Fold this sequence. Notes:
four-stranded antiparallel beta sheet; single chain; alpha+beta; 16 helices
Amino acid sequence: MLSLKLAMRNIKKGMRSFGPFLLASLTIYVMLFVSTAIAVSPSLKQLPFGGAALGQMMSLAIVVLTVFGAMILVYSYRFLQLQRSREFGLYDILGFGKGRIALVSFFELLMSYVITLILGSVIGIAFSKFSFLVFVNLIGGKAFNLKIDPIAILIVSFIFLIFFVLLLLIGTFIIWRSSSLDLLKEASKGEKEPKSNIFLALLAVILLGAGYYIAISVANPITALTKFFFAVILVIFGTYFFYVSFTVWYLKRKKKRPSYYQPNNFITTSSMLYRMKANAVGLGNITILLSMAIVTMVVTVGIFFGTEGTIRAQYPKEGQVTSFTLNREKLTTAIQETARQSNIPIENLQVIKPQYNLINNVKMDQKTLTVSQKLPNQEMMSFVLVTQADLEKLGNKVPKLGTDQMAFYRLSGKKAPLQSVNWFGEKFDITHEMTSLKHFPEQSHYMDSILLIVSNDSTLNRMMTSFNKTLENGNTQLIETVAMFDIDAHQSENFGKVLAKVSPQKQNMYSRTQTIKEAQSFIGGFVFIGFLLGVSFILGAALIIYYKQLSEGAQDQRSFKILQEVGLSKIEVQKTITSQVRLIFFLPIVVTLIHFGFAYIMVSKIIGAFGINDTTMIALVSLATIVVVALIYYAIYKLTSRVYYKIVER
C-alpha cells in the first residue's frame, strides 16, 4: 500500500522532525509506566508498611500524569505538523488527496505508537525497578524486587491509544479544513506585529495580585489547603495573560524610548515583540511547570525531613502510654507491674496529665484573651492544659502560681502580648510567658495553639468541665493521662502486649522508633510521588524549551540572514542572538521564583498541616530545591541553545 510505504519512509528519513515527537512520547510513556507498574505490582504487599499507601498515591499520580501527558503530546504533535505542513501541501497539489494524506498520518501515528510501546515498555521496566529500589531504601525496607504485572503494560498502552486517537482526530481536522496553499505557507508565513491589549495586561496584574494576596494572607494550614487550588488557578491564568499581553505592552513601551534605536536594543526588542505572539503560551507553560515542580518537591521533601522532628516532639522518650481511664497513680502502678511481669527494664518513668486540642472561639481585646462559645465569627484557637507540678517534673521551671493565675507558652501562632485569660467566664491573670519548653509531649498544631499552665489538678478539672459544657450532643472530652519512659525499642511491642493483660482498661502504647518508621513509610511514598511528578514537570518544561529552540531557530535563521545581507556584522549577530536567547529563556525562571516567593507562606502552611512547624528546615529545603531546579533549568538551556545556534548559523 502506497500510504503505508510513504509513512514508513517519512519516519525513517524524517527523524529530524519525528525525533522530538517520539522523544516526548517515550518520556510520557515511561513516567506513566513507572507509576502504573508500582501501583499494581504485587510486590507492594511484601513491604512491612507503606505499601497500600504507595499504591493509592501512585493511582493519583497516574491521573495527574495522564492529563499532563495529553497536554505535552498535543503540543509536540502540533509542532510536528507545523514542520511538515509544506510536505502535506505538496501531496495535495500532486493529487494525493486529503483522504490519503490523513491515511499517511494514521500510519505514521500507528508506527509511532508501536515504537513507543516497545521501547517505552523496555525502558519503563528498567526504570520502574530502579525507582522501586530507591523507594524501598527510602523507607528502610528489605524487599527490593519489583514484580511487573502485565496489566501495567495493558493500562498504559490503552491510555496511549486514547492519546494517539486524539492526535489523529486533531491532525485530520486540521488537514481537512486547510487548503493546499494554506498548508504550503503554514510553516513559513510571516507574523504580524502583535497588538498590545491593555485590558488583558491589567487583567494579568489583577489575577496575579489576587493569587499572591490569597497566598500571603493564609491564616492556618486548613485554610491553606482549601484556598491553595483557587490561588493556583488565578496565578495560572495570570501567568498566561502576562506573557500574552503584558510583555507585548511592555516591549512596545520600550520602542518609544531613545535607547531603542541602538542596534542591539532595536533587534532584540523587535524580535522579542514578534516572538511573544507565537510563543507566549509556551513560555507560560514552562513557567507553570517549573513552579509546579518546585512547589511539589518543597512540600514533599519538607514533609519527609520534618516528620522525624515532629514525632520526636510528640514522643520525648522511646515509650509512651496514653490512658483515659487511669489517673497518675494507677497508670504508674500498671506500668511498673508490666515491667516486672515482662522482665523488660524501663527507666525515667514520668506520668503527667496534659489535655490536648481544646478548640474554641477566642477574642483578643486589650491583652485579654477571651475563650467562649458565644463569640460568633471570631478566630478559632487550640489550647493545651497542664499543671505546674507536671511541667516541673519534666525539667521546666515555672514561677509559683495561685489558683487564679496562669503561665503560658506559645506552641504556634501570633506573638501578641497577653496579660489575662477569660476561660468561659473564669478570669486568670498571666504571671509569666515561658520562652522554652523541655521534654513535653507536644501534638500537631493545625491552628494557633497555646499551652496554658495552671496551678493544680482542681483548677485543671474545673476548666475541663467548663469546656465540656460547650460541646454539643452531650459529648465530653475525657481527662487524659500520659506516661513516658525509656525502653529498648525492640522490646516495646512485647511490653504493650503484657500491659494489655495487666491493665484490663484499654491503654494506648506507642514506640517512638516504630512510629517514625511507619510515618516515614507513608511519607516516603508521598516524597516518591512528589519526586516523580517533579521530574515529569521538569522534563515537560525541557521538551517545550527544545521545541521552542527548534521552531525559533528555523524562523530566526531567515531573519538573521537578511540582517547580515544589509550590513550587520557576524559579531553583532552573535551578540543579538545571545541577548535574545538569554532574555527569553531566563524570563520563565525569574517569573517562577517570583511565584514561589509569594507562595512560600502558603507552602509553609501546607507543610504545617502535617504538624511540621520547623521554619528553618522549610526555608533550607526551599532554597536547596530552587538551586537544584535552577541548575537543571540552566543545563537544559545550555543544551537546547546549541540546537538553536546550529540552526541559525547554518
